[in-house]
Amino acid sequence: MKNDKKTSVKNRIIEASWKLFLEQGYENTTIEQIVKLSNTSRGAFYHHFHGKEEVLFYIAYRFDEDYEKWWESVDPNLNALEKLKEFNLFVMESLENSPYRQLFATLYGLQVMTNNKRHIINPDRTYYKIISAIIKEGIDKGEIKSKFAYQELTEWYAILERGLTYDWCLKQGRYSLVQYGQQIIKAFIDTIKA
Prior knowledge:
Blueprint lengths: L1 H23 L6 H8 L3 H7 L3 H6 L1 H15 L6 H17 L7 H10 L12 H15 L9 H21 L6 H16 L2
């Protein structure tokens, strides 16, 4: 019960923060405003987060919740390469259509500068576990052929998606993330296809 209460407080802080970030911008949002809107305390805020940047970083885990649902519903009859394409499509659509889209540039910029945990590249995220499982499955079934280990291929795949997303942020979303994502991942898949 106590754990549920902690989660509830943490979630209230996250929801209040993101609402304020979207309404008035990350820079214009104060911890005092977050505490007030979340109906918590400054102590509760700092119990869960180092600062407001860390609350912003938690967007990565919100996406992971959707990725996990995708993974649970993916057609098991697809081969690994088809799953990679489908996952890329889902990821790119999720990013391009996200209600948090306007926060991505700030999130990426702060992740580069932070001395704290870099949540986007946390290998314990569901995002990385899914990519890793798909690539390992492809190697095990002979659908993927590479002299590199599945861990390295997982990292390369993630670098492609992350780099594309970063470029998309730099260019203020002036092109279709979905379209470019599919082209880039297809080129990657063609290099590892057995």
